[in-house]
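sry for the spam today, last one i promise. C-alpha cells for design, 304 residues
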C-alpha cells in the first residue's frame, strides 16, 4: 500500500460514518436501502426481499487473486463476500450464497475486525462483494475500522442494482465502484431476475457512481485507487443486449473501464430461459468486444 494514499472514508472520518449509518438504520425499519424498497423491518429482524434480516451474513473473507489485474497487485484483493442478494438472477453461479444466504453471522464490530484482518494480511483494497443490502452495517463497521487504523481503498462490488439515495451515503466513503452492468433492456432483465427495472436503475446508479469518483480509473503502481470499473457478462442469445449495454455505459462516460467477460455457464435455474442453456459463442463474444472499441470506450478489457 502506498503510504501517501488516504482512503476517502478516512478523510470523511469515523463520526460522520457513524452518523450516516444511523440514518440508514432508521430507514431499515421499513427498508428502502435498495431499489426494491420492500418495506421489511430489517432492523427489527424481518427478512427482506434480499433474503436476510438484521444480522450480517458473510460467506467468506480472503485475499483474492482472480479479480482484474488493477485490483490484485502483489497483495491480492481483500474480498468480503456478503450473503443474500437483491436481484434473484436465474443464472446465478453463487446461488448457495445469494439465494441460500449461507454464511457467518456477524455484528458490525466483528465485521470491522474482518476488514482489519485483511489489511494486516497485505490486501491492496477492501472489496465489498454484493454489499447493496448491508449499507448501514458496512458504514458502522468502516467507522470502527477507521478508528483502528484502516487505510485501504474501499471497492463497492455490486450487481449494479443500487439505490441512488443509498449510494449518496457512500459519497466520500467508496474509492472505487465496480458494478455489473447486466442488461440494457428492462424487459430482458425481467426475464432473468426478480426485478422489472434493472436497466433503468443500473444506468442511473452508474451515473451517480461516476459523479462521486469520476469515470477514469486512477492508479498507483498499476493498482486502482479511485474511479469506476464495470463488468459485463456476455450471455448466449443476448448478444444484441450486450452491445446495447456497452452503448449505455459509453453514454454515461467513454472513460469508464469495462471488463467484458465470457465465463457464463448454465447454473441454478438458467435453463428456464431457453437461450441460457448453452455456452457463449466465441465469435459473438469477440464481436461484442469489438463493438465496445468501435463506439469509443477508452479501456475495454476482455476476460475470455
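last one done:
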Amino acid at each position: 500500500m502506498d503510504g501517501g494514499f488516504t482512503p476517502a472514508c478516512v478523510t470523511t472520518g469515523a463520526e460522520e460514518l457513524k452518523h450516516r449509518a444511523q440514518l440508514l438504520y432508521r430507514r431499515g425499519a421499513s427498508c428502502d436501502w435498495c431499489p426494491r424498497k420492500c418495506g421489511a423491518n430489517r432492523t427489527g429482524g424481518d427478512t427482506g426481499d434480499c433474503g436476510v434480516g438484521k444480522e450480517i451474513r458473510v460467506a467468506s473473507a480472503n485475499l483474492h487473486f482472480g479479480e482484474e489485474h488493477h485490483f490484485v497487485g502483489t497483495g491480492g484483493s481483500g474480498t468480503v463476500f456478503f450473503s443474500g442478494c437483491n436481484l434473484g438472477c436465474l443464472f446465478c453461479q453463487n446461488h448457495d450464497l445469494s439465494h441460500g444466504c449461507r454464511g457467518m453471522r456477524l455484528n458490525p464490530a466483528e465485521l470491522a475486525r474482518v476488514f482489519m484482518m485483511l489489511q494486516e494480511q497485505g490486501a491492496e483494497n477492501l472489496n465489498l462483494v454484493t454489499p447493496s443490502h448491508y449499507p448501514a452495517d458496512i458504514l458502522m463497521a468502516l467507522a470502527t475500522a477507521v478508528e483502528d487504523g484502516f487505510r485501504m481503498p474501499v471497492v463497492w462490488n455490486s450487481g449494479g442494482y443500487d439505490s441512488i439515495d443509498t449510494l449518496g451515503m457512500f459519497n466520500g466513503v467508496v474509492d472505487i465502484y465496480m458494478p455489473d452492468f447486466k442488461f440494457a433492456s428492462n424487459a430482458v432483465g425481467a426475464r432473468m431476475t426478480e426485478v422489472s427495472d434493472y436497466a433503468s436503475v443500473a444506468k442511473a446508479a452508474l451515473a451517480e457512481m461516476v459523479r462521486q469518483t469520476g469515470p477514469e480509473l486512477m492508479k498507483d503502481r498499476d493498482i486502482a485507487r479511485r474511479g469506476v470499473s464495470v463488468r459485463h457478462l456476455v450471455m448466449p442469445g443476448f448478444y444484441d443486449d450486450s452491445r446495447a449495454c456497452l452503448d449505455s455505459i459509453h453514454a454515461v462516460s467513454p472513460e469508464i473501464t469495462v471488463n467484458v467477460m465470457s465465463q457464463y455457464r448454465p447454473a441454478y435455474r438458467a435453463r428456464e430461459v431457453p437461450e441460457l442453456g448453452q455456452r457463449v459463442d466465441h465469435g459473438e463474444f469477440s464481436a461484442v468486444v469489438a463493438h465496445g472499441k468501435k463506439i469509443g470506450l477508452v479501456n475495454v478489457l476482455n476476460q475470455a
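The longest helix spans residues 198-213. ok im logging off now
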